[in-house]
Amino acid sequence: AVTADAASKKVDLKELNVQFVPSSQADTIQAKAKPLEKLLKKQLGIPVHVTISTDYNTVVEAMGSGKVDMGFLPPDPYVQAHKQYGAKVILQSQRYGINDKKNDGSDTDKLVDYYRALVLVKKDSGIKNAKDLKGKKIAVQNPTSDAGYIFPVVDLNKKGMNVVKNSDLVTVKGHDQGAISVLNGDTDAAFIFDDARNLVKKDNPDAFKDTRVLEYTAKIPNDTITLRKGISKADTKTIQNAMLKVSKTDKGKKIMKDVYSWAGVTKSKDSNFDTVRKYQKQVEDIK
Amino acid sequence: MNATLPERQFSEKWHVKGSLAVLLFVLIFIGSGYNTGVSTSFSWDQFWQLLIRMMHPDWAYVSSIITPIAETIQMALVGTLLGTIIAIPFSLLAARNIVKNTYLRGIIRFFLNLVRALPDLLLAAVFVAIVGIGPMAGVGALTIFSFGMISKLFYEAIETIDEGPIEALTAVGANGIQKIVFAVIPQVMNQFLSFFLYTLEINVRASTVLGYLGAGGVGLYLDQTLSLFRYDRTAIVILAILVVVIVVDGISNRLREALA
Amino acid sequence: MGNGLGTIKVNDVSKIYPNGTIGLDHINLDIKSGEFVVIVGLSGAGKSTLLRAINRLHDVSEGEILLDDVDITKSKGKALRQQRRNIAMIFQNFNLVKRATVARNVLSGRVGYYSTFRSTFGLFSKEDKEKAAANLDRVNMLDKYYTRADELSGGQQQRVAIARAMMQSPNVVLADEPIASLDPKTTKMVMDDLQHLNDLGMTVVVNLHSVELAMSYATRIIGLRAGKLVYDKPIEQVSEHDFDEIYAESGDGE
Amino acid sequence: MGNGLGTIKVNDVSKIYPNGTIGLDHINLDIKSGEFVVIVGLSGAGKSTLLRAINRLHDVSEGEILLDDVDITKSKGKALRQQRRNIAMIFQNFNLVKRATVARNVLSGRVGYYSTFRSTFGLFSKEDKEKAAANLDRVNMLDKYYTRADELSGGQQQRVAIARAMMQSPNVVLADEPIASLDPKTTKMVMDDLQHLNDLGMTVVVNLHSVELAMSYATRIIGLRAGKLVYDKPIEQVSEHDFDEIYAESGDGE
Amino acid sequence: MQKIQRNSWQKYGPYIITLVVVLIFVWAFTGIPLSTVKPQAMQVTKSIINGLFHPEWSYVYTGDGEDLVSALIETLAIAFLGTFISAILTLPFAFLAARTKKGFFTPRSTLGKLILTIIRVFPEIVLAIMFIKAVGPGAYAGVLAVSIHSIGMLGKLFSEAIENIDRGPNEAIVAAGGSTLDGLTLATIPAVLPEFMNYTLYRFEIAVRSAAILGIVGAGGIGAPLIFALQTRQWPKVGIILLGIIVMVTVIDFLSGQLRKRLV
Ligand SMILES: Nc1ncnc2c1ncn2[C@@H]1O[C@H](COP(=O)(O)OP(=O)(O)OP(=O)(O)O)[C@@H](O)[C@H]1O
Ligand SMILES: Nc1ncnc2c1ncn2[C@@H]1O[C@H](COP(=O)(O)OP(=O)(O)OP(=O)(O)O)[C@@H](O)[C@H]1O
Ligand SMILES: [Mg+2]
Ligand SMILES: [Mg+2]
User: A GO molecular-function term, please (chains C, D) (predicted)?
Assistant: First the structure.
């Protein structure tokens, strides 16, 4: 058995530790690790351990200490992981785009590796353009959130509306909470990803009917698959190909869909995230 | 005098029951160790890293968290108070030495178990879902949480009191409530107070979890500083909570002594 | 008084503890109003068990106990409370609320006469407060009125317990070794107090270990041994060496 | 024995409780080896306080207490423990570990002779176990060897406490009202046991409330009143009515 | 009757304290804006309750080791190890922190209490990250985080139990010449052990429910599934997880009740 293992072993790593935090865009998440473990193990010939976390910080820190080799990270944590511990993106996830025209949250049939954020207001609200947000209450996410803070703030600023200074920002946890707070009238607007209303559709059937999108932001790159620093070039390549292969099989596709609500993965490079870095810089200047 | 030790049955002599219990315990222990993959590998240098980064707190951040920490205290106070008020009648009804009716007690206890089974996370999430974001949700979650916890602590405290005074009051012809007022409350008052403060403290600390779900308070800031990798600010948040807890603790100790 | 109240009839009462110990073994007794009964017996003979049964502090396994012809073993709720109110009990181990003041402990003897509401808020009448002070004075403890019970010496605690019992204005006084921790002077005082209550017409039943005191206060002496009634005579017929018989060990060859 | 060990010298000892109560007030005493001293006094006179001071269960406010010429008020650590090992104490309220068996309670009297390790794991020697059985037998409690202490009657608990004290093979026995809850028969047994220990050469100091017992066992009687030493005579010079004086209230007009 | 005097603190102290306490609570209530319950809240509540009462039974057992049953077992294992390890580690801290002597300032106990407070206050989330850095994500990190966090809580409860016991039996041992340690093992521990066990069991119940920390560390317990189900508002799934937790906690409660009966 030992020799058989050794023969099928395709990388230098003794084992591969994977951790992921389900994307906040996912509208169904299954906390399952085993299926991916099996598929990857078959591809790489080494033991694979997949763990699921609910906090990005742990993934980044564990990659920093070498306890996690591969992490599934959204753009902002990725940029942090890269900056702090030299982690490298190898792949990016793909999703079907959102059919914005229909305003019902349905997908297009085109695979994309980006998404957008939007500014949500009540349908009958008097807020007609960015300037009207002045003095209004806006539900935002943590200042590290791309869709829930950085991109909308920067893009609105470009339109001459400094919400940090002129509006009342209320931090909520989760994009569903942002959407709900608008529906409930707790806030006048919310920064959510496109289209987080899908999350609350089940509990609030009128989620789309009662609301309206004020602005869409620029494109935000999708979630990453990132390797920690110190993995050899050859191994990186092998792992990248293995993941791609997995994503092409029927089984792999189904798992990606069920567990991560991804439609596929595509190769990526660090420079794809320069926009994110740029926005991060810009947001710091908006005071 | 030539006394010999009294004989005991074999099972008593060798503590068969006790030994079996210990054996069972050890087996569960080992099984759990296996299940959770406990090992000896531990990277101390990595372990200290965060602490080292926290060693240089960003003192300027203090001013930003004064309001949220005050909000946390308010939430904790209100939640604990409401929880305690609901808990008192329930704990009396659940105490074996107060309510002799096994069925009534059983029903009450089952209900209390149900309440305590609710994870704090779920409570917070549900309240956020219902009343929306903000301190109201936090207070709701803390109230239910405190209720479950305090009622159990209370009824157990009540069950351990010296029953002599209850007996004396019984002998005097006191009714149930009079017995409680004269013989039970004075004996448990001290413990009630310390459990109240204990829960208050837990509720202050629970703000970290509540913040995780957006139920207001200083927890949100803990979450933010962590996701920005600003451990120098995390340190400030922790210190702020520490100060509050030490104050609560100090009051608790002094009060317990004064009432002892 | 002399109203004929305060009779106790114990009919064929047995008490078996959950762990199997036989506390009382088919006891029959008929105590008249105004008697001063002293119960003697070895340690573990069942004296405390008997007193506690009379007050229904625990249930007996069989038999009935009539207090003024009402069976307390079958009483319930308010009726039971009223029966108990008429029986004062002084405990071997005081049973004070340690964390409460002496005053509150003594006043608690009176709760049987108050509505729950009034007693809860400590709305005791002025008379009762004065009565409490008077009773404390009688046992020489008035200066400790506001002291917490746990700061008292053993003997002092017992005196507070006695004052509490006196608050009840009972028909029957049960006392379980009320003088175990008292000095001779206080002992005499307490026994005299019991005597005094007896003179007022109350029935007094006391567990005692002191033969001397038994002889000088009792109007009737009852002996228990291993849960059985082994002796029951009016004082006139008692001679000191009868006690040797009562105190014989169960196995001493009867 | 008769080895001259077991002397107690109390030099100008005072004890003021934190709440201001004066427990002892400049006490001077010189107890010789082999004496049988009975301390009498009203409830609250300071008898327990004095015994506890001798064993250094609490610190005195001033003065020194020499046990075989070593000042226990200044002893520390191992030396203190060895001094205490030589003094057995019987408490007014038994102080048994309620959740432990009678056997373990009695054996715990022997801890002064064991390393912490051995006593912790209950590794008592066979001799000591037999000694425990013998001592329990002496107080007539052998059949309760494996019973938990909280299932005993008051008197039974006191007898266990006495057996525990006997385990220590002490030079001095201090007993704080050891017979408060005992029947006359057990009382006599216990007093005889104390007498026996005394005959073996141990110094015995007993707090008692019974004048009768004091007169028949003591070789010396000491009287306390409100923390002061008010009486101290060898038994030959004591007459019964001296007690009236000791028992006079502080305010009774001395 | 004779007049019995009380000093002014005895007379007015309770009123002053009551006033201060009332003021504190008034302040606390002012901080909580009474957000009136929204009309939509009814709808949300309804769908939550609806979901909770229609649990997703299929999740109970799937056979792939990632279902409710295995998650609960893993949670139990983590809680069990974490709690009982910490119960042992706690002992020295508890005795250090217990104030057994009166006095205004007691350095030993103050130090002990301070250590315990710091441990307690340290957020679980941060602890979790530290342990993940040290041992990697998974149940092991969960055990460590639970056990360290529990020390702070148990240490406090234990030390108070020690402070509250009847010192009589301990005194008797000391009077017999036993060392402080003898008093501890022969009198104090038997007296406090049931209470220690009680608190440990109690803490065990709490650990079982502290899903948050386990979810964060990727421990594979019930934490992550619960958090995700909550985040994506899959109420039927929340329902089944909740049911599982309730059953588990009830069983634990029953067992620990039996155990307690035997210990007392
Ligand atoms: N709660 C109990 N459970 C089991 N047995 C008990 C209990 N209380 C008392 N006993 C046993 O019942 C018997 C009678 O006890 P009781 O307390 O009535 O004795 P007593 O005559 O009052 O003795 P003493 O003079 O020592 O107070 C004793 O053998 C005692 O061990
Ligand atoms: N812990 C304490 N704190 C304050 N005062 C106390 C304390 N213990 C005892 N006292 C007081 O000290 C005095 C002496 O008490 P002590 O217990 O020595 O009396 P005693 O002679 O043993 O009485 P008794 O015969 O009733 O046992 C009493 O007035 C008592 O109230
Ligand atoms: Mg008795
Ligand atoms: Mg005394």
Answer: ATP binding
